[in-house]
Amino acid sequence: MADKPRILINGKDMFWSLVPLLALCALVLIASGNCSIGASKDVADSKLPPFDVVSALNADASQLPFPIRRPPTPPGWRPNSGSSDAIEGHRISTVGWLSSGGAYVQLSQTDAPEDVFVPYLGGSRGDFGDIAGTGTRQSGGRQWVTYETAEGKKFWITDLGDVRIAVLSRGSDADIETIASSVVAQEPLRVG
Fold it and tell me: Compositional bias of type Pro residues: which residue ranges (predicted)?
């Protein structure tokens, strides 16, 4: 059978000639492992390497002028971030995890007073703005002051004298409680 004359080729012919090519591209992507669809919604499905919380907190403990505590990573949680920041002459050590439920949970430790720390955590540098105090909670044998922003970000802060510790998340209170109770149970990391 002879090929169609060029004048009779239309968009439908073009579509059917691209289908095998697209199928081949999809097969190569899936086989290479560089592509995932995230169907299981499991934190462990991430292709990104986990953040090294142990090294980050050890480095902060050796450099910052206040005690740093390192909670154990809960089962099913994935460490994913860390940073060190400064506000009004005070330093802040921050690390974060993705909980087994997929929510981001952040642990921040600082020597800044609470009235400086709260706006920083709420995302507004300088005043409390849209941050509301929502009461207190007991966790790990400590009292935590609870806050929430208009965007739904929740955080708890406790004062251990020489350091303020905050746990922040948009996820459930259970996720915050997991880190809050375990961090205050830890001894400060030894430097050197």
Answer: 68-77
Strands annotated E in 19-153: 78-87, 90-98, 104-110, 131-139, 142-149
Beta bridge pairs of residue 7: none
Phi, psi angles (nearest 5°) of residue 70: -120, 110
Distance CA 154, CA 168 (A): 6
Distance CA 52, CA 95 (A): 9
Q: Within 64-172, where are the H helices?
A: 114-122
Q: Spell out the domain ranges in the chain.
A: 49-184
pTM to 2 decimal places: 0.75
Class of the CATH-defined domain 49-184: alpha beta
pLDDT, one tens digit per residue, over 87-139 is 999 999 999 999 998 899 999 999 999 989 999 998 865 455 688 889 999 99
Whole-angstrom distance, CA of residue 123 vs CA of residue 104: 16
